[in-house]
Amino acid sequence: MSKILVTGGSGYIGSHTVVELHNAGYDVVIVDNLSNSNIKILTQLHAITGKWFDFHEIDLQSYVAVQAFAEQHSDITGIIHFAAYKAVGESVAQPLKYYKNNFYSLINLLTSFNKKIDFVFSSSCTVYGQPDALPVTESAPIKKAESPYGNTKQIAEEILQETTSVTPDLNVIALRYFNPVGAHESALIGELPNGVPANLVPFITQSAIGKRGPITVYGNDYDTVDGSAVRDYIHVVDLAKAHVAAVKRLEDKKAESNYEVFNIGTGKGSSVLEIISAFEKTTGEKLDYKVGERRSGDVEKVYGDVQKSKDVLGWEAELGIEEMMKSAWEWEKYIKANPF
Ligand code: NAD
Ligand code: WQD
């Protein structure tokens, strides 16, 4: 059984990926500093899988700590690197906080695990900015980042590409996620936003449960189906499964080169108003919303070309907007009744 290190494994996408790795028969070890997650996730993961996962509270920004961890865990064959800060607005206010965490963590891992290693990196569709053509393919040009957060993903991809080109023992797959939403079907794990959610779906569920006021739709004058902005929303469980596919591809030595990139989305765009209406229809809850100004830095529309993921990675999304809305709502109700 191969041992996979999941950094950021108690976070939103990481926790769902731990479940899918376990279901696929992998031995999982988690590293997280709990800066944006809760230790109670381990109890939730146990309730879902029946397993207590090997957890290490380590700050990946510390080279000494990562080096010691790597020495003690020489049996790790693969790493899925989720751990990073991800709040776009905060990254504009505190760029160094983002550059320090997102780069130190990546570089400390790459230098400490300096042996034959498989590495899956969490990248983002943010690297495309507003693409010239849609659906956007992996070969589309990388646009100047709108935020320090986006810049950390662009530069991290470059760091990985340049490092793999001189390190044959390092095998990397970078997954460019579109907009992850939803929660595990058990409703025992899900997204835990810090403070007022900046992202659409957590704001919708918090508004519906009465924790927030009405939603503001940021702009209704875009050149889209109904004037509101369009994104490619992807169920977090589908996204988690894409990581298992990536780990398998690296393990089975199927990669065509030691640096590959895949879009991870559904290939389908949905507008903000369509998401609001899908939430109402799926859950029976009525949402209160108003239309406001466009949000600075937002792109008009983006959705991914997912042909390469289907053909090469052998992965495709299975869950639709209904499952995304329903599971996000079940999780919101669960966390209200069982606060962490
Ligand atoms: P998250 O904040 O829920 O999870 C990240 C986890 O990493 C948290 O548990 C946090 O405590 C941990 N962490 C952060 N810095 C750390 C450090 N120095 N040492 C150890 N642990 C640390 O975020 P998420 O939504 O699960 O995102 C996971 C990854 O996916 C991130 O790299 C993010 O940039 C990327 N991503 C997320 C989205 C999204 O919309 N959620 C979209 C594209 C890419
Ligand atoms: C989706 C749509 C908003 C809230 C961000 C990051 C990106 C990636 C995913 C990590 C947009 C609109 C939102 C609200 C609204 N993360 N909206 N009212 O902006 O596509 O992407 O998360 O890599 O880097 O930028 O996601 O969920 O914030 O917004 O109208 O209260 O919903 O304007 O059109 P976004 P989001």
TrEMBL record:
One of its GO terms (cellular component) is cytosol. GO terms for molecular function: UDP-glucose 4-epimerase activity. The keyword Isomerase applies. Its cofactor is NAD(+). Pathway: Carbohydrate metabolism; galactose metabolism. SUPFAM superfamilies: NAD(P)-binding Rossmann-fold domains (SSF51735). Keywords: Carbohydrate metabolism, Isomerase, NAD. This is UDP-glucose 4-epimerase. The lineage of its organism: Bacteria, Pseudomonadati, Bacteroidota, Sphingobacteriia, Sphingobacteriales.
